[in-house]
Design brief:
This protein has 129 residues and is mainly alpha-helical. The chain has helices at residues 11-33, 44-51, 55-63, 80-89, 95-112, and strands at 41-42, 70-72, 75-79. The mean pLDDT is 82.
Length: 129
């Protein structure tokens, strides 16, 4: 039989004990892993998990060299960090972002090429009489 020791512990003491145990657990896990989650390398299952794409789609993107990957022999490897960056780089701009870029472009064009009579020879110019 085991000896059982009962004691009174307050809620804050219990929370503190849990907090310390969790910190110790994750610190030990990080030391044993030797890497952070963002450095994780995995196979096709990691790519599926991160991208949410189907296995045939991933294989198709690999064959077209459109998705970041490494290959050793016949095995494919994917980096969590590379896949997340690849997804972020594929972000499509909103219509507001496109409109702002267009306005900025027009403004730079106006500054770089101010209107002149030669440039606007097809436009009717009103002259003050």
């Amino acid at each position: 039989m085991q000896n059982l020791l009962l004691t009174q512990i307050s809620d804050s003491e219990i929370r503190q004990l849990f907090r310390e145990e969790l910190e110790n657990f994750f610190a030990a896990k990080q030391l044993t892993d030797g890497k952070t989650e963002s450095e994780e390398i995995g196979g096709i299952d990691l790519a599926i998990e991160i991208t949410g794409l189907a296995k045939p789609t991933i294989y198709s993107l690999v064959s077209e060299r459109k998705i970041p990957h490494s290959k050793q022999g016949k095995r494919l490897y994917f980096s969590r960090q590379d896949l997340l960056e690849w997804i972020k780089n594929g972000k499509r701009k909103t219509q507001t972002e496109i409109a702002i870029e267009a306005e900025n472009y027009r403004q730079k064009e106006k500054e770089a090429f101010p209107p002149t009579k030669q440039r606007n020879r097809f436009l009717k110019v009103k002259e003050n009489s």
